[in-house]
Write a structure and sequence with these properties.
The structure holds two protein chains of two kinds. Chain A contains twelve helices and ten strands. By secondary structure, chain A is of the alpha/beta class. Chain A has one domain: 3-Layer(aba) Sandwich (Rossmann fold), CATH 3.40.50.970. Chain A has an eight-stranded mixed β-sheet with strand order 2-1-3-4-8-7-10-9, sandwiched between helices. A two-stranded antiparallel ribbon of chain A has the order 5-6. In chain A, a hairpin with a 5-residue loop joins strand 5 and strand 6. The N and C termini of chain A lie far apart (50 Å). The mean pLDDT of chain A is 96. Chain B has 13 helices and 15 strands. In chain B, the strands form three sheets. In chain B, strands 3-2-4-5-7-6-13 form a seven-stranded mixed β-sheet, sandwiched between helices. A five-stranded mixed β-sheet of chain B has the order 10-12-11-14-15, sandwiched between helices. Chain B has a two-stranded antiparallel sheet with strand order 1-8. In chain B, strand 4, helix 4 and strand 5 form a beta-alpha-beta unit. In chain B, helix 1 runs parallel beside helix 2, helix 3 packs parallel to helix 4 and helix 10 packs across helix 13. The model of chain B has no long low-confidence stretch (mean pLDDT 97). Classes of the chains: A alpha/beta, B alpha/beta. At the A-B interface, helix 2, strand 2, helix 3, helix 5 and helix 12 of A face strand 2, helix 2, helix 3, helix 4 and strand 9 of B. Strand 2 of chain A pairs parallel with strand 9 of chain B.
């Protein structure tokens, strides 16, 4: 049983009723507990801007609330300077999937050992619900009163295409699998990416007939299939649906800090030894 | 012992200064005319086991450098005007969170893509306000290749002392011109005089400091864990919107600089003792000014001209410039700069007079002859 007080600061949570961020935070605490990581001394939690961005200020660790879309480059530097510590980055779908998209793709490719969690609530919730890169076609949003007409990004597909070596998708409906996924990502030697489908009844649901927490949860449930089941669907049935579980795990790619260590050795060799 | 010399340009010397100052983390993106400094660090930093990274864009480059600073390294990024524009948001973050970083801006012709391979001093006002919001920027303006070394060293010390971004405002001319440098001169320059303060006490709060003191940001994973944010925050580092606390933070960010100007301001004079005319300039223009002054003094109709040159451009040397205005009338003061008039407004403001102005914004340096002719013209009026 996780002793949550060990992992959480006593600051007030800024989130609305029905929000999924608290569930993600719980799953993260559970993963920390299973890993038996010393959060206060060995873990750095970096976040971007958005509702999920406030998660860093609630965790009992070295925490950094960075800029909109810019969590990853700062986190990468910390992970490179302290390769023996653990860096966990929290982002939202707007933060990581839109304004921070190039950094997201870059870090998937760099493969520096850190864990990147995008809490995907399908909207820019902190700014009251504009469409994000993951908002489904046809849904209503601020700045999109007639419905979203651009097809959504699939963030896990983007991560895989960008060379990420660990890619997983979970939901706030299933906390135990989610915490296991985060744990597996943290154990992975390299960059691990975990997308979490999460509900926002207040700023996404309100505009789309999903006013309660149960409504958004049912809606998310209708979007996802466990990977094995998803793979059995026809191409037509796969439209607008998403697989959950660990979607990719690759061990043959060199980790970013290991690659730099080799680079350092090569530099010294070319300069005639130490 | 025989004096030894090297042939070197300002950009490489800035890189040498960074190495000698102990730079531990650099995040960069290539940009003419600044790239040589990054190229130098790319060669030297891995050899020393330090972290050098070319990032995917300038935004990530400065983010990476800030991450390095938070992790405990002396950190740097290198760019020119257009790149610094992309870094603007992070610069504001570093002011608010009080993260030490050195930013080398090797100025080129602007605005826009402008004149990438030609010199300019067009970023002077932008360096004073390099980000949205109220900040007190510290900007150093080297006037020679050797000063690219000395001012970069000084920037690293000032960054750790005042816990904020320090901008070194170089330009294409001194950045690219190879000149003879005495190794003994490099040796003499002070570096690493200031280390970052650390507080290992159990009740540590990063921003719990005196009203004119910078924050104490322990390197991450040193001492008690804490929180950093770009939001306005209280002494503990957590966000607040309390009116009194927010004003106090804003005031302290100014006061930590304003109360310690003696540690920041640095000016250079040339033949000012008997000067009847004075040229106020900075950066590479001073090289032409020195030449012009020597010619004017040695000509058949000599004119006694001197030069006043701030090495710390911002905050401006208000007191020193005001004192000059007390001795020399405005008709005999010339401000020369490679732009259409940026620092001249500051000079006017602090001198409370209207000096002559010589500006040029076509990507060409101001020549000694142009300064000479301008002073002659002033002497005939």
């Amino acid at each position: 049983m996780t002793e949550y007080a060990k992992y959480l600061r006593k600051n007030e949570t800024p989130w609305c009723p029905g929000c999924g961020n608290g569930i993600v935070m719980k799953a993260l605490c559970d993963a920390m507990n299973s890993l038996a990581w010393d959060m206060k001394n060995d873990v750095c939690v970096v976040s971007g801007i958005g509702c999920s961005g406030r998660m860093s200020s609630l965790m009992e660790a070295y925490t950094l609330h960075s800029l909109h879309g810019r969590a990853l480059p700062m986190a990468e530097a910390i992970a490179r300077v302290h390769p023996n510590k653990h860096v966990i980055v929290i982002s939202g779908d707007g933060d990581g999937g839109s304004i921070g998209r190039s950094a997201f793709m870059q870090e998937c490719n760099e493969n520096v050992d850190m864990t990147y969690i995008i809490v995907n609530n399908f909207t820019y919730a902190l700014t009251k619900g504009q469409s994000s890169p993951t908002t489904p076609v046809g849904t209503k949003a601020y700045m999109c009163p007639y419905g979203v007409y651009v097809r959504p990004f699939n963030l896990c597909e983007l991560a895989i295409a960008s060379g990420a070596t660990f890619v997983a998708r979970g939901t706030t409906l299933d906390v135990l699998p989610l915490s296991k996924m985060i744990e597996a990502g943290c154990k992975h030697h390299g960059f691990s990416f975990i997308e979490v489908f999460s509900g926002c009844p207040e700023n996404f649901g309100r505009k789309n007939g999903l006013r309660t927490s149960n409504d958004t949860r049912s809606w998310i449930d209708s979007l996802v299939f466990p990977k094995a089941k998803f793979d059995e669907l026809s191409d037509e049935e796969k439209q607008g649906k998403y697989p959950t579980g660990i979607l990719k795990r690759e061990h043959g790619v060199i980790e970013g800090n290991d690659a730099y260590a080799i680079h350092v050795e090569e530099a010294r060799r070319l300069n005639g030894g130490e | 012992m025989k004096e030894e010399f090297i042939l070197e340009n300002g950009n490489n010397l800035a890189g040498m200064a960074a190495m000698d100052s102990g730079v531990g983390c650099a995040g960069v993106y290539p940009l003419t005319p600044s790239s040589e400094t990054a190229d130098y660090l790319a060669e030297k930093m891995p050899l020393a086991g330090r972290v050098f990274k070319q990032k995917e864009d300038e935004i990530a480059a400065i983010g990476f450098a800030l991450g390095g600073a938070i992790a405990g390294c002396k950190a740097m990024t290198i760019t020119s005007g257009p790149g610094k524009a992309l870094m603007s948001e992070h610069i504001g973050y570093a002011f608010m969170a009080e993260i030490p970083i050195v930013i080398l801006d090797v100025m080129r012709g602007g605005p826009g893509t402008g004149l990438p391979t030609r010199p300019s001093q067009g970023d002077v006002l932008y360096a004073r306000n390099p980000t949205p919001g109220d900040v007190r920027a510290i900007v150093l303006a080297p006037g020679s290749a050797l000063e690219c070394y000395s001012e970069t060293c000084r920037a690293f010390d000032l960054a750790e002392r005042f816990m904020q971004p320090i901008i070194v405002l170089s330009d294409e001319l001194i950045g690219h011109d190879d000149v003879r440098i005495s190794l003994a001169d490099l040796e003499k320059i002070k570096k690493n005089t200031i280390e970052r303060r650390v507080n290992l006490s159990e009740n540590y709060q990063p921003y719990c400091v005196g009203k004119d003191e910078p924050a104490i940001l322990n390197p991450f994973f040193t001492g008690k864990h804490y929180h950093i944010t770009g939001l306005n925050h209280d002494a503990s580092g957590f966000p607040t919107e309390d009116a009194v606390l927010c004003q106090a933070t804003s005031d302290r960010l100014f006061e930590k600089v304003d109360a310690h100007l003696d540690e920041i301001l640095l000016n250079k004079m040339y033949k000012m003792e008997d000067a009847e005319y004075v040229i106020v300039c900075y950066g590479s223009v001073s090289l032409s000014a020195i030449d012009a002054i020597d010619r004017l003094r040695e000509s058949d109709h000599p004119i006694k001209v001197g030069m006043f040159r701030p090495l710390t451009l911002w905050p401006s040397p208000e007191k020193a410039m005001f004192e000059i205005a007390q001795k020399i009338p405005q008709e005999k003061i010339l401000v020369a700069e490679m732009n259409n008039g940026q620092y001249v407004r500051e000079v006017e403001c602090v001198m409370r007079n209207r000096p002559h102005f010589l500006g040029k914004a076509n990507g060409r340096p101001i020549t000694p002859l142009e300064i000479e002719e301008k002073i002659r013209e002033m002497s005939h009026d």
